[in-house]
Structures are given as C-alpha cells and as structure tokens.
Design goal:
The complex is a heterodimer of chains A (112) and B (114).
Chain A lengths: L4 E3 L2 E4 L5 E6 L6 E8 L3 E9 L2 E5 L6 E5 L5 E5 L8 E8 L7 E2 L3 E5 L1
Parallel strand pairs in A: 2-11
Antiparallel strand pairs in A: 1-3, 3-8, 4-5, 4-9, 5-6, 7-8, 9-10, 9-11
Chain B lengths: L4 E3 L2 E5 L4 E6 L4 E9 L5 E8 L4 E4 L2 E6 L4 E6 L8 E9 L9 E2 L3 E6 L1
Parallel strand pairs in B: 2-11
Antiparallel strand pairs in B: 1-3, 3-8, 4-5, 4-9, 6-7, 7-8, 9-10, 9-11
Classes of the chains: A mainly beta (112), B mainly beta (114).
C-alpha cells in the first residue's frame, strides 16, 4: 500500500458526460501527479501540482482539467467524454518536486 | 508520446534465472527510474539512478545507466514467480521549471514460470 488513495475504483459512463476523479496523496507529500494509461498510448503524464500550484503539463486535453486543494487532495475533471478516454487514470505523489513517485491504485474509466 | 523504448516487449523465464530488460530514451535526463506494475494495478517504484551514476544495486536488482548511449538496463537476479509483472523505465528531464514530468517507456512484460 503506497498511502495514495484514489476514488472511485471503477467508473462507467456514457459519451458526452463529465466525471471527477479524486486523489489523496501520502501524508506530507506536497506534489500530486496525474497519469493516463491506455493500450494504444501507454503511460502518459498529464499534469503536476505542487502545494496547490500547477507546475508541469503534459499531453492533457483541453477537455480535462485538474486542481489541488489546500488540504493537498487533487481532482481530475474529464468532460465531453469520448470512447477514446477509456483508460486507467493514476494519481501519484511525492514529497517535493523530484525523485520517486508513489502511485495510487488507479481509477478505471470506461466510456460507452 | 513515449520517451523510451523497452526491450524485450515480453520475456518468459524459469524461476531462479536472471531477467534483463533494457530501456532507451531520447533526451538528457536528471535521473532514470524503474517501476513495476502488477496486472492493471498501481506502479511500484523499484530504483532510481541519477545521471551521474553508472550502476546501482537494491537487493536482487541491478541497474546500469549509460548516458552516452541514452540507455539503461535492469537486471533481476534469481527471479521468483512473484516477480511476474510489467516493468517500466521512466525518465525525469533536466530544466523542468519546477515541475516533475516522468516520461515512461513502453514496458517489458516479465513472466517467471515455476
């Protein structure tokens, strides 16, 4: 158990809908990262927040947005969902902005 | 896009044998990390090697890094059935502007048979 929690574990929704994925980092970690894992794209970095501020952005679609709250938990919002958004979404955390990352168990999103 | 390619894509060995997987990457890095993923679950950090290091050990794991060739290898000695998983290399670049973006390779699926 990494200490990173993600909810929900599974999510099934229809195209065009909006969902919110939630992540709680390890106690004391200030950085939160979001990744998408799909069969065709592999593991892709989406976004990094440090202590509430966006620090790095990857291949994140405009339909996706994220934020980190004062209590350091983070949410990833996915809107206007398409079939291709079906994937595993992982959150990870780290104490600062470098080094190893601790991954949560993931949220499996299925868009039908 | 993926930073690195891993080789082989899949590897099947007998318990007790050694497993070697390789990773190549494209840009300058601050460090390279290896992660393990059991089927559809979260990734587990295994080892981190900095760009100024050439070799690192952790238990049954040995990692090498050749920055001139932009490549790394992970050796798992005396493999066990519990080592069956996918293994990913991930690179952290320099000059991230305060951000930390790990770029993952394509992964090697390791199967250790009894």
């Amino acid at each position: 158990d990494s200490g990173v929690t993600q909810t929900p574990k599974h999510l099934i929704t229809a195209t065009g809908q909006r969902v919110t994925l939630r992540c709680s980092p390890r106690s004391g970690d200030l950085s939160v990262y979001w990744y998408q894992q799909s069969l065709d794209q592999g593991l892709q970095f989406l976004i990094h927040y440090y202590n509430g501020e966006e620090r790095a952005k990857g291949n994140i679609l405009e339909r996706f947005s994220a934020q980190q709250f004062p209590d350091l938990h983070s949410e990833l919002n996915l809107s206007s969902l398409e079939l291709g958004d079906s994937a595993l979404y992982f959150c990870a955390s780290s104490p600062l902005t470098g080094g190893e990352q601790y991954f949560g168990p993931g949220t499996r999103l299925t868009v039908t | 896009s993926q930073q690195g390619e891993e080789d082989p894509q899949a590897l099947s060995i007998q318990e007790g044998e050694n497993a070697t997987m390789n990773c190549s990457y494209k840009t300058s890095i601050n460090n390279l990390q290896w992660y393990r993923q059991n089927s559809g679950r979260g990734l587990v950090h295994l080892i981190l090697i900095r760009s100024n290091e050439r070799e690192k050990h952790s238990g049954r794991l040995r990692v090498t890094l050749d920055t001139s060739k932009k490549s790394s290898s992970l050796l798992i000695t005396a493999s066990r059935a519990a080592d069956t998983a996918s293994y990913f290399c991930a690179t952290q670049p320099f000059n991230t502007g305060g951000g930390n973006k790990l770029t993952f390779g394509t992964g090697t699926q390791l199967k250790v048979e009894l």
